[in-house]
Design goal:
Helix 10 links the parallel strand 15 (335-342) and strand 16 (371-374). This protein is of the alpha/beta class and 555 residues long. The chain has 16 helices and 21 strands. The termini are far apart. Plays a role in the control of cell shape and motility in the trabecular meshwork. Residues 68-161 form the LCCL domain. It comes from Coturnix japonica (Japanese quail).
Length: 555
């Protein structure tokens, strides 16, 4: 007899025997039945050991659900499990840094089950049994660092789950013998973790898709819009070194669905887009555009230095609010706005449009490049490639850098005795008013201040504060020094200690000197040295400041 035939017969016999296991009996029955099998061949014994391992790992084939655990991988997500309540077995030694976890206590179904269980403290990285309870979706999932895992923020997801310790004793005993490659009891091959790809390196861009979620578009066309956005995302070539994308939904109130940092693989983005729910309400696109320009693009949310920032606005019909102001804000933040309009207003509907020229006023430049029109949401595949080509045309991104968002401004403040407390406060007010005009952020403009007499004191540097509010608060808290006036030494100090650390950055450097009197040292030499270092110097005279000194320092 060929070995293969004997093994097949043994399998059939074991299947027949296993089908007759009485409910509630343990695996010892299987072991004793096999050991007493007359003339058990090596193949049968090998299969017996295999079957015994399956019983140890997953529990009896029949009986109550509470005794059955499904072996999963490190990367199985909540959405991969279909039962409302299910007990699973997490393997040991999962790489913590690779987990994707969203929330705390209640986790978005996109989260890794084992990652959530470790984050919650239900198990350790040694693995173990976990009970999963499916829950409704949440509006917000917070970011919390716990047990070596940093969960991430996620806005509005369709479903959630919670984790508690498992109760299957057999599974708990077997975990030490199980391996991380164990397959689920369903027989399905576990999903492999998504390999992080570099993506399209020729199309580096940080893109926010601002989708229409208003009653204008409706549920059906909303789904067609999601399909189109998904096709665009795939063709862009999303990856760690390529484009990064996020989604914001415009309706009554804007909602950031996910940020640039949340997903860097096309499959992840596609699934996230598919899960988006329709919100309804008025199409307050202007409000959503302004919100996205101000809140979406930051380093904390995944924006990258030196990469073009783009908002692609999808508009079904027309907006119910003003886009012009939002377009101005976006340009000041260095954001390139594209408008993709679908189904233009009919002649009868034009009377409901606040501003017929809303597209030209919202886009980055009114040159035709930043507007894109599709007749309907049907048959949109042919429009995907032309839009992607536009989004990847870096040389056309005319709004990426502006004076408002790409400068370092250092203020050199005269704190000498001749200024006086009241004039000193006026200088601080002047600095605050200048700072208010710029878009200060970790990837935008930055402010620094130095006060000088005979000595110099750095009040705050370019890296200390990355929001306008904090900068303005720091300016208000500057205290008057009082003393002599040595402007030249102060210029040299600021060039070396304040501008030195940022000299290789992308921002342009400006030094604004505010003084009321003649300096006791040479000003011209340090000013020339500052200019050779790439710093443009401005002098602002206060009260009776000598004009000659001001000119020498600003040459």
């Amino acid at each position: 007899m060929r070995p293969g035939r004997g093994l097949r017969r043994a399998r059939r016999r074991l299947r027949h025997s296993a089908a007759e296991v009485p409910p509630g009996e343990d695996v010892g029955w299987v072991a004793s039945s096999l050991s007493s099998c007359p003339g058990a061949c090596p193949a049968a014994m090998q299969l017996a050991q295999l079957l015994l391992g399956v019983f140890l790992l997953c529990g009896p084939a029949r009986g109550s659900d509470s005794s059955a655990s499904t072996a999963i991988t490190c990367f199985t997500r909540g959405l991969d499990l279909r039962k409302e309540t299910e007990e699973v077995l997490c393997p040991a030694n999962c790489p913590l840094w690779q987990f994707y976890v969203f929330g705390d206590g209640v986790y978005a179904s996109l989260s890794s089950v084992c990652g959530a269980a470790i984050h919650r403290g239900v198990i350790t990285n040694a693995g173990g049994a976990v009970r999963i309870q499916t829950l409704p979706g949440q509006e917000n999932y917070p970011a919390v660092n716990a047990n070596g895992i940093q969960s991430q923020v996620l806005s509005r997801w369709a479903s959630s789950f919670s984790v508690t310790p498992g109760t299957n004793k057999l599974a708990l005993e077997a975990v030490g013998r199980s391996v991380s490659t164990a397959r689920p009891a369903t027989g399905k091959r576990p999903k492999k973790p998504l390999e992080k790809k570099a993506g399209n390196k020729d199309c580096k861009a940080d893109i926010a898709f601002l989708i229409d979620g208003s009653y204008n578009i409706g549920q059906r066309r909303f789904n067609l819009q999601k399909n189109f956005v998904g096709k665009v995302a795939v063709m862009l070539g999303i990856g760690t070194e390529g484009p990064h994308v996020g989604v914001v939904q415009a309706s009554e109130h804007p909602k950031i669905e996910f940020y640039l940092k949340n997903f860097t693989a096309a499959k992840e983005v596609l699934f996230a887009i598919k899960e988006l729910g329709f919100r309804g309400g008025n199409s307050n696109t202007g409000k959503a555009l302004k919100h996205t320009a101000q809140k979406f693009f930051s380093m904390d949310n995944g924006a990258r230095k030196g990469i073009p920032k783009i908002i692609v606005v999808f508009l079904d019909g027309w907006p119910s609010d003003d886009l012009e102001e939002a377009g101005i804000v976006a340009r000041e933040f260095g954001v390139n706005v594209f408008i993709v309009s679908v189904a233009k207003p009919t002649t009868e509907e034009l009377g409901m449009v606040q501003d017929i020229g809303f597209i030209d006023k919202a886009v980055c430049r009114n040159n035709g490049f930043f507007s894109y029109q599709m007749p309907s949401w049907f048959g949109t595949t042919k429009y995907v490639k032309p839009l992607v080509q536009k989004l990847c045309s870096h040389e056309q991104m005319l709004c990426s850098k502006t004076c408002y968002n790409s400068v370092n401004i250092g203020f050199l403040i005269d704190g000498s005795s001749s200024v006086g407390e009241s004039n000193f406060r006026l200088m601080l007010e002047f600095i605050s008013n200048v700072a208010k005009a710029f878009e200060i952020s970790d990837i935008g403009s930055k402010i620094a201040t130095v006060q000088f007499t005979y000595d110099q004191r750095t009040e705050f540097s370019f890296t200390d504060y990355t929001t306008k509010e904090k900068v303005l608060s720091a300016i208000r808290n500057i205290r008057y020094m009082s003393g002599g006036t040595a402007t030249g030494d102060a210029i040299s100090f600021t060039t070396r200690n304040v501008f030195g650390p940022v000299k290789d950055g992308a921002n342009k450097n400006f030094l604004v000197i505010l003084t009321d009197g003649q300096s006791y040292d040479d000003v011209r030499g340090p000013a020339i040295a500052a200019q050779k270092a790439g710093i443009t110097v401005f002098s602002v005279g206060v009260a009776w400041a000598p004009l000659d000194d001001l000119k020498r320092s600003a040459d």
